[in-house]
Write a structure and sequence with these properties.
With 290 residues, this protein is an alpha/beta fold. The chain has a single domain, classed as 3-Layer(aba) Sandwich (Aldehyde Dehydrogenase, Chain A, domain 1). It is built from eleven helices and eleven strands. The strands form four sheets. Strands 9-8-7-10-11 form a five-stranded mixed β-sheet, sandwiched between helices.
């Protein structure tokens, strides 16, 4: 079974909700044990604690040029001491351009299936993401769980549905028939959507996943590659999401650099370099397209 076939029901429900302007949530917003499992909360908290003081090695971005991390917990009043792989702007752009050559050729059905599958992986880590959000943004437990977990996943699904619908809205081929008096001219025409290229999504310190996933998933579903540049004070929540996207890409024999994490530090930010790079075609600032 293809990933699209696996998830076509949820994709179609999301598209229907867009057309009908009705409420639809695929991911329950209440952190209830009956929904997510009796040990889900404790497991998520333990996974967060296990990340403290260690390298975040889940990303599929090879040959790091360094490791860095400056997150500080408002609750613990100390640094998390989690380090992430770092890369130069040139490396990030070059890898994104290479990945674009293959990603743009993946069918919209396959892209949709892959992206929803990554949301299912994200769902299994909602509690871990919640604690990561609490200890990087200062949010309370319920807000951190809902905004960074199910609400963010629903926003991502909406972006997938909207992009999928736009790409399917017009036929990709047709017989064009023009009457010319005694005869007709017939042309076999084909159309294809052309992605723009490299996209950069710039995250914020307050809602690190909720504000970023629309730009990430909106670009990915339409065939663009994405470089995610989180705020240096709130990396872990969105790093988990990127790791889940890369995991599904690798499982489907695709280049994980389709979606990269671009970590920087307060003293050496790369936001301006990325945003002004001539090869960057799309920029999203914390969920607001620019």
């Amino acid at each position: 079974m293809s990933l699209y076939k696996k998830h076509d029901t949820i994709i179609n429900k999301a598209i229907t909700a867009l057309h009908e302007r009705t409420f639809f949530a695929a991911y329950p917003e209440h952190p209830a044990p009956a929904v997510y499992g009796e040990t889900a909360d404790a497991d998520g908290q333990n996974k967060f604690k296990a990340a403290l003081g260690n390298k975040f090695e889940e990303l599929k971005q090879s040959a790091p040029e360094g490791w860095a991390g400056q997150e500080e917990s408002p609750y613990l009043q100390e640094t998390l001491k989690i380090s992430y792989p770092t890369f130069s702007t040139k490396t990030l752009i070059d890898r994104s351009k290479t990945a674009f050559n293959s990603w743009r050729k993946v069918s919209v059905n396959d892209r949709a299936g892959i992206l929803v599958e990554s949301l299912e992986g994200m769902k299994s880590r909602f509690f871990e993401i919640a604690y990561a959000t609490m200890h990087t943004t200062g949010q309370g437990y319920m807000m951190a769980f809902q905004a960074s977990g199910p609400h963010a996943a629903d926003r991502a699904l909406e972006a997938i549905a909207a992009g999928y619908e736009e790409l399917q809205r017009f036929p990709n081929q047709a017989i064009w028939d023009k009457p010319m008096g005694k005869f007709n001219i017939q042309l076999n025409k084909e159309w294809r959507a052309i992605p723009k290229g490299v996209s950069v999504v710039i995250g914020c310190s307050t809602f690190p996943t909720w504000n970023s996933v629309t730009g990430i998933y909106g670009s990915l579903i339409t065939g663009n590659t994405v470089i995610v540049k989180p705020h240096p004070g709130s990396i872990l929540p969105i790093a988990i999401v990127v790791a889940e996207i890369q995991k599904v890409l690798v499982e489907n024999n695709l280049d994980p650099n389709v979606c990269q994490l671009a970590v920087d530090t307060f003293d050496k930010m790369i936001t301006k370099e990325l945003a002004e790079h001539p090869d960057v075609k799309l920029i999203d600032f914390t969920g607001n397209s620019a």
